[in-house]
Specification:
Number of helices: 3
Shape: elongated
Structural class: mainly beta
Order of helices and strands: EHEEEEEEHEEEEEEEEEEEEEEEHE
Radius of gyration: 32 Å
Length: about 325
């Protein structure tokens, strides 16, 4: 007969996406004596990486006899003291679940806090409570620490940027979680590689400003990159377009009639050579508009574009003057 003080081993599983904390498969082969001698929650990770903003979900099973038993999920950053993120208790069927946000890399572990309060144990009279207390599960040791890496996140405006040749391109954003002193880089793509052209450190609330002097006209790809540190793993934005503009002489006209391209664009522009439907970015006195080629013209030597009334109005443009354009 098995002694009365021996109990079935407890199993715990933690999942964060695919992150899991569980008793190892070999635990099924352990005898009760071996389980009591071990007395430690076992961790088996299927994944140890979280995207920023994703929560850590803890699910598990324990013997139904442990209903009400309290567990705590604890977190530590690189050897710093452990602190509790959340707690839960074992349900009547032995299951438990807890969900917590995790924004920094570190280690997690599961710690048994203690048996349920006397009023929560089986029975309701004092004698029964004393019997339950005598048969309550013996304390179990905390699980081994499991490292979890959490990506950083770069928050930036989604639109393409415009720069004038020789003038600095300014890129603003924030690194999450918001903390000062992190290094971010502005990179441009050339010859199938990313090259760093500007470096900055985050300010008090994670904000940053990167500036780069664009020296040639045209469309280029750029990204902002964070190489990672002790707090969070590396992250980069997707390649985005920066449009560098050059000067061109333009005029404006009213396109109330038919257009050579057969349609009227909301913001339209006439060009003597660009294909119909081509998008062209214009900048003038601090305003920027992207127009669509929908007509032919101008037919005056030296002029490159005719802006329709909507495009000219959005730019505050009148008469004949120099504008900055992406083509």
């Amino acid at each position: 007969m098995r002694p009365a003080n021996l109990r079935c081993p407890r199993t715990v599983r933690i999942t964060a996406g695919a992150l899991a904390i569980a008793a190892p498969a070999s635990a099924a082969a352990l005898t009760a004596n071996q389980a009591d001698a071990l007395g430690v929650l076992q961790i088996t990770p299927a994944s140890d990486h979280l995207r920023y903003g994703h929560a850590l979900t803890v699910r598990g099973l324990a013997p139904s006899s442990d209903r009400g038993y309290r567990l705590a999920l604890q977190f530590s950053r690189r050897g710093r003291p452990w602190h509790t993120l959340a707690s839960t208790k074992v349900r009547a069927n032995g299951a438990f679940r807890v969900r917590v946000p995790l924004t920094r890399s570190g280690s997690v572990r599961v710690v048994p806090v203690g048996p349920p309060a006397p009023s929560q144990r089986r029975g309701g009279v004092a004698g029964t409570n004393l019997l339950s207390a005598a048969s309550a599960p013996a304390p179990i040791a905390a699980s081994p620490a499991q490292p979890v890496a959490v990506d950083a996140r770069l928050a930036m405006a989604p639109s393409a940027l415009v720069a004038l040749p020789g003038q600095p391109l300014t890129v603003r954003g924030a690194l999450l979680p918001r903390r000062p002193g992190a290094v971010v880089r502005l990179q441009t793509r050339a010859h199938h590689r990313w090259h760093t052209v500007a470096v900055a450190r985050t300010r008090r609330h994670g904000g940053f400003v990167l500036r780069h002097a664009v020296r040639r006209a045209g469309k280029q790809s750029f990204r902002v990159s964070f190489a990672g540190d002790a707090g969070n793993t590396a992250v980069s934005t997707r390649g985005r377009s920066v449009v560098s503009l050059h000067p061109a002489l333009a005029s404006w006209y009213y396109d109330g009639g038919n257009t050579a391209c057969g349609f009227h664009a909301g913001y339209g522009v006439a060009s003597p050579y660009l294909p119909c439907g081509t998008k062209v970015t214009f900048a003038y006195q601090g305003r920027t508009v992207t127009a669509v080629v929908d007509d032919r013209g101008p037919f005056v030597p030296g002029r490159t574009f005719d802006l329709n009334q909507s495009t000219a109005g959005a730019l505050g443009f009148g008469g004949v003057d120099t504008v900055w354009t992406s083509i």
